[in-house]
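Exercise 7. Predict the structure of Iron ABC transporter permease from Aeromicrobium erythreum.
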Amino acid sequence: MRRAVRAQRRAHRARTTTITLVLAAITFALFVVTMMIGSYVLSPWEVVGSAFRLTDDPSVDFIVLDLRLPTAATALGSGLALGVAGLVFQRLLANPLASPDFVGISGGASLFAVSAILFTGWGAVATSTMALLGALLASIAIYLLAWRGGITGYRFILVGIGLSQLFTALTGYVIARADLTDAREAMTWLVGSVGSAGPFELRTLLVAVAVLLPVAFVLSRRLGALELGDDAASALGVRVERSRLGLLALSVVLVALATAAAGPLSFVALIAGPIAVRLIGNAASLPAAAFVGAIIVLTADLVAQHALPVSLPTGVVTGAVGAPYLIWLLATVNREGRGG
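Solution. The predicted structure, encoded as tokens:
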């Protein structure tokens, strides 16, 4: 019996590793394709050679490094961040609706970032800082309002939805108070576009992804213990509230910095985790969800820029894909009676 269980675990680990590597390869391929396609089409070898400084062609270097690499890197970084954050929320709260953009975290980041864009004039540093502050304050408010001797997914989501609507209304009010030019800029930012990130936002996002994603992967064992319930997690030696708060805070920072760089890319965090679960099983790994998120954003940007008659912000495509999924998910949750 034990031998069979060990064999089953090895098979699952092998399957998880294989699928994750395939997802990583697809992500890299899309990353390269994003830098290949445009008004001037490049070969994969030109892109790779320029990106890794293996060749010296000033015209190709300008196209790749100055024009296309920032967009591709923003899509990659924001997708990785949102994929991990979404799955952490969904597993912690045991509910597929527990997505940062659905429960007000992205809304708080957007409200504060838009306020910084419209009223401070302090540039990228203010936008990133205010987005992070807004997301943190939103998460604290949701956590405190949902606390009743503990946190349940259903109550957390309901409180988050309420605050999300409040943040949306306040964002609309802030935009209405701005002059027309600034309001148009803010509305464009609110749709979400990976081509709008400045150097500071992009560097901040990439540093956060490089530092926080490995931390999240290390903490994934605690996440698995928390899924068993607070009592079982405590019995396994996990400090329940500290671990839960740490994982939530890590996810909030990732969402905030992705939002500061690319705007609120709707539904990416919501759908990346479930896709990873479909591919791997219920114990979907955070790396798999990260790569799924990156694939979604990179693909959405390719479609938005090159597959339609006119170029559109990336968030339009993610919204068009995510909205039907949300409708299906709501219908499924309602039929199954799952509340978290």
